[in-house]
Design brief:
Radius of gyration: 24 Å
Shape: globular
Strand content: 35-45%
Largest sheet: 7 strands, mixed
C-alpha cells in the first residue's frame, strides 16, 4: 500500500517566507508576557481578547477541561529517494511484518513560485499504532530493535476550554480550543516566562529560562490534554534563533556564516518531510533544529547571518541535507549510519583534519577503533580552546568520554528503553561499524536471550537513561571471581551522529582563519554554495 503526500511551497507574509515551528507541548500552564498595544489576541472564533488590555501584561494560560488530540503512530524502518531500494526492504520484511506501508514525503519545494529543490523520498513504515510505545516495541517483529524513529499523524485536534489569568491586572477569560497572538510587525517580541529547557550533558534535568520569540503564537490542546504552542516566524529570523540556540553568538563570523548556510539548507531539504502529518513544519528540538528563542545580547549575529541570505548548499539542482553534530570525535560519518539512503547527498567522510591521509587506521576494524578512541589524535575537534567552546558543559567531555554502569543498572536501562529482557548481560558485541567507528549494529548476549539493536541513534538510546553521547565506543567489562560481569565501562569518542559538519571542528577551523567557503568545502564534498533567492 502506498500513500501520497502533497508538494510544498513556503507561505509568504509581508514578502517574507515563513515557517511554522512547534515551540512546546505537554505544558500544564504557560506564562506569556507581551506588549498589548502591539499584538492582537484572537480566540478560534475570531473574537479579540485584549481590546481593553494595556501595558505589558503577563497572562497565565491553563486548561480548564478538554479532550486530548488523537494521533496514530508509525515505526520508520527505512527511507530512500529510490523506490526500488525501499521495495527491496519490503521484500525482506514481508514475512516478519504484516503492517508495512510506503509513504511519500516532500516533493518540489518552492518559494515565490520558484522551485528551489526536490526533496522527494520514500519512507517504509510499519503501522498504524495507537501509541508511541506500541510503535517502538513492534520492532521486535523485525528480529532487532529499531525503536527511535517514530512518525506521528494527527487524526483529531484537541478541544476544550483554556483559561486566561492576567497576573498583573484583574482580568479573566475562557476560550474554546485555542487562541492566537498576532503581532503588528515581526520586530515585536513576546516572552515565555520560566520556560523549562533540557540541560545539556545532564540526565533528566532542566533549566528554567525566560525565552523571547518573534512572529505569531498559536496555542492549542495537545495529545496529553496539555498546552502546545506553534510559532509562525519569518525564515531568516528563525535561523537567527537556531544559530543562537545551537552555538551561541560569541563566535567567529565565518563559523556563524557556515552554520547559517548549513541550517538554511536543512530547512529547505527537510521542508514537508519531518512533520508532514502534523500542523507544523519543524519542532524546536534536535530532531529538527534547536530553537530556544531569538533575542540575543548583540545585533551583530543578525548582521552576520544576513550576509548569507539566500545561500544554500547544492548538489546539482538539489539542496544538500547538510547535517551537523556537536563533535565528530575526529572522523565524520555517512547518512547510512541511521538507515538512510540519500542519492547525491555528499559529505566529506574523512578524518577531521587538514591531512587526513596521515592516519593509517580503518575505523570499521575493532583493533583500530580501540587505538583511535584511546589515543588523542591531532584533529580539529580535539583541542577545546576559548574560540571553540560552544557549550562549556559539553566542551571538555565530548571529544573523548567515559560512562560507567553496574551490570544491574545497565540491564534495567535496557529493559526500560527497549522492552527487551536479555536477563544477565554477558557481553556487548559490535557487529558492524560506520566509517567513523560508530556502531551501526550491536548484539547483547544475555542469559535469557540475545538482543540486536541497529542504527546509531537506537544504540545510543538503548544504553542510556537519556541518550549516549555517541555510538563510537568500546566496552570494557569488569569481571567477578566467577567470570560474570559486575560492571561495564563505555569509552567513547564524539558527541552526536557525526554526519556532516562537526561544530567543534568548524569552530576550530574558523579560529584558525579558515573562511566559510573553506569550512563548508571541508565537510561537504562536491557541494556548491549558491544564492537561490
Amino acid at each position: 500500500m502506498m500513500e501520497m503526500s502533497s508538494k510544498f511551497e513556503f507561505p509568504i507574509i509581508k514578502n517574507e517566507p515563513v515557517v511554522n515551528v512547534c515551540l512546546f507541548k505537554k505544558m500544564e500552564n504557560i506564562d506569556i508576557c507581551f506588549n498589548a498595544k502591539n499584538y492582537t489576541i484572537q480566540d478560534n472564533q475570531g473574537r479579540i481578547l485584549n481590546r481593553k488590555i494595556s501595558g505589558t501584561p503577563t497572562w497565565r494560560l491553563k486548561i480548564k477541561k478538554g479532550e486530548a488530540a488523537i494521533y496514530s503512530y508509525y515505526l520508520i524502518i527505512y527511507e530512500s529517494e529510490n523506490l526500488e531500494c525501499v521495495q527491496s526492504e519490503v521484500e525482506k520484511l514481508n514475512k516478519l511484518c504484516d503492517q508495512l506501508i510506503i509513504r511519500e514525503a516532500g516533493g518540489d519545494v518552492s518559494y515565490a513560485g520558484i522551485t528551489i529543490t526536490n526533496n522527494h523520498k520514500y519512507i517504509l513504515m510499519a503501522g498504524p499504532f495507537g501509541s508511541e510505545k506500541e510503535a517502538r516495541y513492534y520492532c521486535k517483529n523485525l528480529d532487532q530493535l529499531n525503536h527511535c524513529n517514530i512518525h506521528r499523524k494527527l487524526e483529531k485536534s484537541g478541544s476544550g476550554i483554556i483559561e486566561i489569568f492576567d497576573l498583573d491586572n484583574d482580568y479573566y477569560a475562557e476560550v474554546r480550543d485555542g487562541l492566537k497572538f498576532i503581532p503588528d510587525n515581526f520586530n515585536e517580541y513576546y516572552e515565555l516566562k520560566h520556560f523549562e529547557l533540557p540541560l545539556c550533558g545532564e540526565i533528566d534535568k532542566v533549566v528554567r529560562e525566560d525565552l523571547f520569540y518573534q512572529g505569531s503564537l498559536q496555542i492549542k490542546i495537545d495529545e496529553n490534554r496539555a498546552l502546545a504552542g506553534v510559532n509562525q516566524i519569518p525564515l531568516e529570523l528563525y535561523l537567527k534563533g537556531v544559530i543562537v540556540s545551537e552555538i551561541g553568538e560569541h563566535h567567529s563570523g565565518e563559523f556563524i556564516k557556515s552554520m547559517a548556510v548549513v541550517a538554511r539548507s536543512q530547512v529547505f531539504a527537510n521542508y514537508g518531510q519531518k512533520h508532514f502529518d502534523e500542523p507544523y513544519d519543524f519542532c524546536s528540538s534536535g530532531h529538527c533544529l534547536r530553537y530556544y528563542g531569538i533575542k540575543s545580547e548583540s545585533s551583530a549575529i543578525a548582521e552576520i547571518i544576513s550576509q548569507t541570505s539566500g545561500l544554500l548548499l547544492q548538489n546539482d539542482n538539489k539542496v544538500n541535507l547538510a547535517l551537523f553534530s556537536y563533535s565528530c570525535g575526529g572522523h565524520t560519518d555517512s547518512y547510512d549510519i541511521n538507515n538512510m539512503s540519500l542519492n547525491g547527498q555528499n559529505t566529506m567522510v574523512k578524518f577531521d583534519c587538514c591531512e587526513p591521509n596521515k592516519f593509517n587506521l580503518n575505523l570499521q576494524n575493532e583493533e583500530d577503533v580501540e587505538t583511535w578512541i584511546i589515543q588523542q589524535p591531532d584533529v580539529y575537534c580535539r583541542e577545546v580552546t576559548k574560540a571553540t567552546i560552544i557549550d562549556p558543559k559539553l566542551a571538555n567531555n565530548s571529544f573523548r568520554w567515559e560512562i560507567f554502569y553496574t551490570r544491574i543498572e545497565l540491564e534495567k536501562i535496557l529493559k526500560e528503553k527497549t522492552g527487551e529482557d536479555p536477563g544477565i548481560i554477558y557481553e556487548i558485541i559490535p557487529l558492524s561499524r560506520g566509517v567513523s567507528g560508530r556502531c551501526k549494529e550491536i548484539e547483547i548476549l544475555g542469559s535469557l536471550k540475545n538482543v540486536r539493536i541497529s542504527g546509531e541513534r537506537n544504540i545510543r538510546s538503548a544504553f542510556s537513561d537519556s541518550l549516549l553521547q555517541s555510538s563510537c565506543f568500546i566496552v570494557k567489562p569488569e569481571l567477578g571471581e566467577d567470570g560474570m560481569p559486575l560492571s561495564f565501562k563505555f569509552i567513547g569518542a564524539g558527541n552526536g551522529h557525526g554526519i556532516g559538519l562537526c561544530k567543534v571542528g568548524a569552530a576550530k577551523m574558523a579560529s584558525e582563519n579558515y573562511s566559510m567557503e573553506s569550512i563548508l568545502a571541508h565537510y561537504f564534498q562536491e557541494s556548491q554554495i549558491q544564492k537561490r533567492y
